[in-house]
Amino acid sequence: MQVIHRHILVLLLGGFFLVPLACSPLLAQSVKTKQRELKELRDEIEKYEKRIKEGERQERSTLQRIDDYDRQTSLIRDLLSRLSEEITANRREIQISQLNLATAEKELKKLKREYARTIVSMYKRGRTHDTELLLSSRSINELFIRSKYLKAYTEHQRQNAAEIRRRKEKIETEKMLLEEKLHEQELAIAEKREEESSLKRKVNEHKQLLARVRQDVQSYEKQLRRKQAAARKVERMIADLIERERKRIEAERKAMAKREGKAEMAALPSKPISNTAFGRLRGRLPWPVSKGSVVGFFGEHTNPRWGTVTISNGIDVAVPSGTSVRSVADGVVSIKSFIAGYGNLLIINHEDGFRTVYAHLSEITVREQQKVNAGQVIGRSGEGVTGPVLHFQLWYEKIKQDPLLWLAKR
Question: Which domains does the chain have, with CATH numbers?
Answer without folding.
Answer: 2-214 (no CATH), 221-261+284-406 (2.70.70.10)
